[in-house]
Structures are given as structure tokens and as C-alpha cells.
Amino acid sequence: MSTQESCLSLIKYFLFVFNLFFFVLGSLIFCFGIWILIDKTSFVSFVGLSFAPLQTWSKILAVSGVLTMGLALLGCVGALKELRCLLGLYFGVLLLLFATQITLGILISTQRIRLERRVQELVLETIQNYRLDREATAAEESWDYAQFQLRCCGWHGPRDWFGVLRSNETEAPRVPCSCYNSSSTNNSIISQKVFFSQLGLLSPRARPPPSADLCVVPADDSIYNEGCARSLQKWLHNNLISIVGICLGVGLLELGFMTLSIFLCRNLDHVYDRLTRYR
């Protein structure tokens, strides 16, 4: 066996093994997404999300798992069976993904101000329309979860909620329970109120009556005073190296697989011609 044949054989099995790994990974992601759809109650109690956002994320996971499995299957079969059509299709899909990621990165960097303005408009619109229908929408539940996780209140600050959750001008300002900072006070009454509002996320049977469905707390010293815009900027700044590292790693991995697949695809004919000549 010549050096070229040995190199092609090594590339073939290298592509097969790594794509087999990603096929298994895609299967796990798909099964995880389906598991969330089937057993929502356990995950609601674990992550604190209610049904609407959780169902959206589970569908995203399931679709991502299927796409990963399909792409890995192309690489596995194309490399193992040395099928140029599958290797070419595998290269084309990877090239499309890589180009899409580059385009998104350029758009985010060049349109950052417009993107921030659009996000701000969506958040403020969600705040202004908060529970007008007495039923929480996916956007409202997702924003409550964002405030709880980022430990913030409103987009600019708690004042974004003033006037939204009170029925008349004389009533004291109130904010959603997701703005409540449980570590700053030992108010058992409010803590119990927040707890039972989260309990209503576990099951439709556990929901309180409509009149008590809206969980609010007074806008005093026991709430988060920082706006989520500032908290989000801090989070991005603290995790910038990790985000850039992950993006670079994914990009380099795609470039590596594209290079190996196109190299294998272009050199298969030379090997076949040489084998035919010696027969």
C-alpha cells in the first residue's frame, strides 16, 4: 500500500469515527428534547421555566438533534463507503453552515446598535402588555425567567414596571415576583407568595385561581435595582472569552471536516485509476 493510499485510508476512518461521535451526540440531543416534551413537569420544577418557553426550547433541541444526526450520517456513510456524491453533499452542507455563521457574525457586529434597539423595543412592549389577558404568554414567562436568572428588574430598571401593575395612580408601585431579591430580606409572607407562584408552573391543576394568578411584590428595597440591559452587558463581558472560544472552536472544526472531506472526495479517483491499472 502506497503512502497516498495509507493517507486516504487514515482520513476515511478519521472522518467516520468523528462523524459517528456527532451522530451519537445528535441522538442524545434529540432524545433529550423529546424527553422534555413528554415529561414537562420534572423539567419545569428543575429549571424554573413554565410550559410555553420549555416547549419551545425542547422543539429547538429536537430539531437540532435531527439535523446533527443527518449531517453526521452523510459523513459516516460517505467516508466509509467512499461515495463521492455523499462526501460532496457533506462538504456543501458544512460550507453552507459555515457561511451562515460568518454572515450572522458580520450582521451582529455591524448591526449591533439596531439589534439592541430592537431587543429593547420587544422587552418594553412585553412589559407594557404584561398579563393584559390574565394568561402569561411565552414572551412574558421567558422575560420573568430572564429577570430571575440575571437578578435584574425591567430593561433600564424597576421604573419600567411602575404604572404597569397598578390599577390607579394612588396605588403603590409594584413589580413581578421575578424581581424579588430573596437574599436581601427574610419576609416570609412574600417568600411564600413567590414560592406558590412558582408552584403554579408545575401543573395546570396546581395553578391558583385567575384572581391570584398574577404574582406581584411592592417596589421597595427587597427587589433587584439593576436593569437587565446592564446585567446582560455584564454577563456578556464576563463570558466573552468563552463565547468567542466556542465560536472559534466550532468554526475550526467545520473547516477541518470540510478540508478532509473535499480532499478525500478529490483523491478517490486517483486511487481507483491506479487500482484499475494494476488489475
SSE-based structural type: mainly alpha
The pLDDT mean sits at 79
Shape: elongated
**Major beta-sheet overview:** 2 strands, antiparallel
Give the low-pLDDT segments.
198-212, 271-279
Give the helix level as a range of percent.
55-70%
Proportion of strand residues: under 5%
Helical element count? 9
Q: What key phrases describe this protein's structure?
A:
279 residues; mainly alpha; two-stranded antiparallel ribbon; 2 strands; disordered C terminus
How do the strands and helices of this protein lay out in sequence?
Layout: H1 3-38, H2 40-47, H3 51-81, H4 84-110, H5 112-128, H6 138-150, E1 174-176, H7 188-199, E2 216-218, H8 228-238, H9 240-278
Antiparallel strand pairs: 1-2
Helix pairs in contact: 1-3, 1-9, 3-4, 4-9
Question: Care to describe what's here?
Answer:
This protein is an all-alpha fold. The protein contains 9 helices and 2 strands; from the N terminus they run ααααααβαβαα. A two-stranded antiparallel ribbon has the order 1-2. It starts with a helix and ends with a helix.
